[in-house]
Amino acid sequence: MVSRGSMDFLHPGSILGYPAGPMPRESKRALSFRAQRIRKVLFETHADAHCELDYTDAFELLCATLLSAQCTDKVVNTVTPALFRRFPDASQLAKARPSELERIIRPTGFYKNKAKSLIGMARAVVERHEEQIPDTMEELVKLPGVGRKTANVILGNAFDTPGLVVDTHVARLSQRMGLTQQKDPVRIERELMELIPEEDWTQFSHAMIFHGRRICTARNPACEGCPIFPDCPFPKRRTRKTRRRKA
Ligand code: SF4
Fold first, then answer.
1. Is 167 assigned a catalytic role?
2. What is the pTM assigned to this prediction?
3. Mean pLDDT, rounded, for 36-47
4. pLDDT tens across 137-151, in order?
5. E strands of the chain, at which residues?
6. Which of 67, 98, 139, 177 has the most C-beta neighbours closer than 10 Å?
7. What is the residue extent of each domain of the chain?
């Protein structure tokens, strides 16, 4: 799925039919305190959370992030060594033959679109930015295939500029945890930015993604034993919904 003409693939609101939302009658202040508790527990639980894509600089991270759409980081990491050996920088990638690039990145899926995005991005970087990946949201999102999610990955990890990444995990978890009721990723990002201190945006994204991959998975969230359980409305709502279905 290509959203808004970018390679930022996302399934907003994909909570598989389970209800989500805030704690009943929760004030803004209570939500803010609850968000801080969730952030603290996530940071303790996933102290090692980090970007799981392999890269050495902003160019490599941008390529890897574009390839990660609808693909696991593990698979991306199997193709990027060959990709970066053959095309070590934007100027080389800008001159790539699509067929050769497609052959290298094929395991990541949607390889024709991804090859177009990679070449388009590299050409724009060469033509507009003297072969350097730009370090602002404003310029990053003007690159072909780059949306806010990808731009935030680059800002947060390659440039040490806080970036709140709303991928499929962050969208699903923030809805389940009742931190937002929004479904649009840009609105989710905006609401999370108000709840989470700016200096923590990048690490909060990593911790949420780790939690979504390891505990709060899409189909089978391990609520029993989840450290967020006391502050998460999702298990209670799911129980109520199950009871209603049986009644
Ligand atoms: S309690 Fe359940 S829904 Fe809430 S964060 Fe944990 S695993 Fe996810």
1. yes
2. 0.88
3. 98
4. 999 999 999 999 999
5. none
6. 67
7. 28-47+164-240, 58-158
Q: How far apart are CA 107 and CA 84, in angstroms?
A: 15
* Distance of alpha carbon 154 from alpha carbon 135, whole angstroms: 8
At 105-125, the pLDDT tens digits run: 999 999 999 999 999 999 999
- How many angstroms separate the CA atoms of 122 and 134, rounded? 12
Of 3.40.50.300, 3.40.50.920, 1.10.340.30, 1.50.10.140, which CATH number belongs to 58-158?
A: 1.10.340.30
DSSP H helices, 87-110, are 90-94, 98-105
In the structure, which protein residues have their CB atom closer than 6 angstroms to any atom of ligand 1? 176-177, 215-216, 221-223, 226, 228-229, 232, 234-235
- Which atom of ligand 1 is the closest one to the Cα of 232? 4
Residue for token pair 């990593």: 206
More confident residue, 13 or 139: 139
Place of tokens 């001159």: 95
Q: Which two tokens stand for residue 48?
A: 């090692």
Query: Which fold would CATH assign to domain 28-47+164-240?
Result: Endonuclease Iii, domain 2 (1.10.1670)
